[in-house]
Each structure stands twice: as C-alpha cells, then as structure tokens.
Amino acid sequence: MRYLTAGESHGPQLTTIIEGLPAGLLLASEDINKHLARRQKGYGRGRRMQIETDQAQIQSGVRHGRTLGSPVALVVENKDWKHWTKIMGAESLSENEEDEVKRKVTRPRPGHADLNGGMKYGHRDMRNVLERSSARETTVRVAAGAVAQKLLEELGIKLSCHVKEIGGITANTEDVHSVEEIRQRAESSEVRCVDPDASEKMKEAIDQAKKKGDTIGGVVEVVIEGVPAGVGSYVHYDRKLDAKIAAAVMSINAFKGVEFGMGFEMAKRFGSQVHDEIAWSEEKGYTRKTNNLGGFEGGMTTGMPIVVRGVMKPIPTLYKPLESVDIETKEPFTASIERSDSCAVPAAAVVAEAVVAWEVASALVEQFESDRMDHFSKSVSQYRDYTKGF
Question: Strand 332-334 and strand 306-312: pairing?
C-alpha cells in the first residue's frame, strides 16, 4: 500500500490518495472522522482547532460502504480558506492585486523549514514553504492511518496511543496492561495521559509555558497487540518493519527521536537484562517472557505487542519569538509569528498512532494475499495457526 498527500495549511483542502487496499473492506466516513476528531483535541491546542471541524469526504474507491480495490481519495476541507483565497489562490494575480496581498514572509522562523526550504526551491516569500511544511498536513495522514486501523481491526489487531511525558513530567504506566485500557484511560484525559496525577501536572506545565509565550514538548507511545510473528524481513535493510516504523514516526512534524521497547535504556544494561527469553505453550505457541525489545527481533515482529515511542520537540513557533534575519534586508529581526499551539503532544500521539498503523497494515498487505479482504483475512489466520504450531 502507499499514499500521497496534497494541500497547504490555508489552501482550499487537504487530499490523500490511497492505493493498494484490498477490495471488500467495510469503510465509512465515520471510521475516519472519529480519528480526525481525536487529533483536534488536546490541552494546549491553538485557535486553529476552534476554526476547523475536520471531516473526511470519500471521493473515490468506495461503493456502498466497501472498498473496490481501486485508489481511495479522501478530502478534508479547510474552513479557514475563505480568509485566504487571494493570498493562497492558484490563479495568477495582477500587479495591483499583488500589492494588496499581504502576509509575505521574509523573516524565517528558527526551528522551522522556512529558510532551508526557501533556499532549496528559490522562494523569496517563505509562505510558499511554511504552508506545506505545516503540521496541518498531518490531518490527512491521520485519515490514511484511520483507514489502516480499520483494516487492522478486521484482522483482530488492536492499537492505541498515549502521552508518556510532557515538559519533564512522566506518567506512571505500571498499572496499565492492555491496549483497550490504554485507549479508555488516555481518551478520558485532556492530555491523553493514562496517569491522572501526571495529567494534572502536565496541564499546569502547559499553562506555565503559555503564560511565558513559550512551548513544551514530550514523548508519546504507540502500542499494538495481535500482530503475528514474522511480519517484516531480515533480508534487506529497507524491508525491516521496525525501520519503516521508525522512519514514519520521524517523518511527523517536530519529532526528533524514536525508540522501541526499553529503547535507549538498553545502553545502560547488560545483555542478560535486555533480551527477551523465549517460551512455548500449547495454548499460545511461542511467546517471550519479557518484551524489552518492543515486539521486534531482526526487523521482524515477535508476536509480542509492538511498543514504539517518539519524542517531540517544543513547537518552534513562539509568542516570544526568537531572533532571525530578514532575507531581503539581511537585518536582524524577531521571527514572524504564525498562529500556533503551546503544546501539541496529545495531538501528535494520534498522528503517531496513525503512521504506525499504516506501516503495520502495509507490511501485512505486502506479505499476504490481499486483493480481496476475505482472502486476506483467511491468509493471515492460516499463518497465525502455522506460527503457533511451528
């Protein structure tokens, strides 16, 4: 499977085209919209979320509630477009109209793609860069991920996300033991955290950052249960599923690190404290006594839950802006201010969930017979039985 996204932050719409879905998958707009709504929630979100009410329109590839096997096109309209039609329109402008169009960006913001993107593509108005590099694009990545989650659900694979840390405040997750429990507890928290005490402290930290005109980042975690062992490959570097997931998580705006299972803590441990011992039972087949490696060995799934975390830096758009240089005058100025969040970590967790879901679903589609949903489900089920009795 693959997908492409198109659209700018203040353009008329965001679009994704998904190719490679099995025919016969039950799919409705609500399957997608519930995840778009989750992305828009979260303590610390900015005013843009008060303007937009993201709803996906299925434009192709689905008939009478089931996928056709042809490309699926999804569109999410930008309601704020009505205020930006001249500024962001596709049509050429007259000389007089060009003088009227404001909001030209010549002062690149530290931490953003503005300056580097302007250099790469020769844009003297860096709005041409920031409109596409904006995290608004993740709206349709969540839409694509929602379709992937629907596919995984049909195979009995469950996943959820939650916030592990915001601004140095870490959640206690020792009493959480399943994906369903993570989902229930995280979705009842304004910061998508399973620890009520940590949730309140995180909110206080966000409030303090906002008062200072500053931003804070954090760590999110995605957990997937039910993926059979042996999905992915050890044969080539670009077929390792953990590598694909790591790349997908790193592709999310403002993410700067990824780890699986015990992650970077492994650097401090002996091998005997890290590797997961293998066990077998008639009921479950092969299992691991621990899951320190986060569900992966040799680029393939072990059958244990996949546990992946990503670290998100503080959003670089600040209301007490950092110093920059005007590319026209070369004079020092404070960077331009664009409407932004003080903390987007709770929303970023939903984006991480979406991109991880996509990579797992894509790996399954690649590995098993997948032209038809019924054949796909049967193929995965037979493989599960095979691995259990191996």
Answer: unpaired
Helix, coil or strand: residue 155: coil
3-state secondary structure of 298: coil
Tokens of 279: 């066990």
What integer is the mean pLDDT of 33-43?
94
The partner residues of 222 in beta bridges, in order of sequence, read 161, 308
The candidate with the shortest Cα–Cα distance to 362, out of 258, 248, 223, 252, is: 248
CA distance 210 to 318: 9
What percentage of the chain reaches a pLDDT higher than 90? 84
Structure confidence by residue, pLDDT tens digits, 231-281: 999 999 999 999 999 999 999 999 999 999 999 999 999 999 999 999 999
Whether residue 206 is predicted with pLDDT greater than 60 in this model: the reply is yes
Q: Are strands 218-225 and 158-166 parallel, antiparallel or unpaired?
A: antiparallel
| Residue 325, C-beta contacts closer than 8 angstroms, at least 6 positions apart | 107, 108, 331, 332, 333
Q: How far apart are the first and last CA of the chain?
A: 29
Beta bridge partners of 16: 5, 74
Half-sphere exposure of 378 (CA within 13 A, CB side): 6
| Cα-trace Rg, the chain | 22
Decide: residue 210, CB within 10 A, 0-12 exposed, 13-18 middle, 19+ buried: middle
SS3 125: coil
Which residues contact residue 366 at a Cβ distance below 8 angstroms, ignoring those fewer than 6 apart?
A: 1
Name every residue whose Cβ is closer than 8 Å to that of residue 110 and which is 6 or more positions away in sequence: 316, 322, 323, 324, 335
Q: Which helix (H) or strand (E) holds 200?
A: helix 196-211
Q: Is the dihedral of CA 160, 161, 162, 164 positive or negative?
A: positive
Q: Which CA distances in Å does 146 have to 87, 157, 163?
A: 32, 13, 19
Tokens of 223: 């957990």
DSSP one-letter code for 327: T
Q: What is the pLDDT of residues 72-122, one digit of tens each?
A: 999 999 999 998 998 999 988 887 777 666 678 898 989 999 999 999 999
CA distance 126 to 118: 6
Is the CB of residue 34 less than 8 Å from the CB of residue 56? Answer: no
